[in-house]
Amino acid sequence: MKNQRSSGKDRPVYMISVAAELAGMHPQTLRIYERKQLVQPKRSAGNTRLYSEADVERLQLIQRLTQEEGVNLAGVMRILELQVEIERLQEDLECAQQEASTTERRIADEIQAVRQSLRADIVHIPRGGIVRRGL
What we know:
Elements: H1 2-8, E1 14-15, H2 16-23, H3 27-35, E2 42-43, E3 49-51, H4 53-68, H5 73-121
Helix pairs in contact: 2-4
């Protein structure tokens, strides 16, 4: 999952003025959000802030939460933290499901092997009598 995201969305390409325009904010707001650690743009060799597509999406979410939902910045920080936790838990769940599936297949294979082994050991006794062999 992470590799898909980091391929293009995490590449820092937008200067602060462009990122602010895309997010519908003033550049100063982006600086404030950076100080409050709501967004962490990368820096160029010349120390220019560079925002990625993922950063812009995050800024748009912050804008929506604060403007449309009336959430304060402390609430926004908590929501963002919870989103990260949800993503981590989803990854953990996917791993657990894969392990469970692998274990189920292994157990099914072992059960099948035991059944085959038992079938080979079963001696059929017909109705009405005992069959004696070798006498």
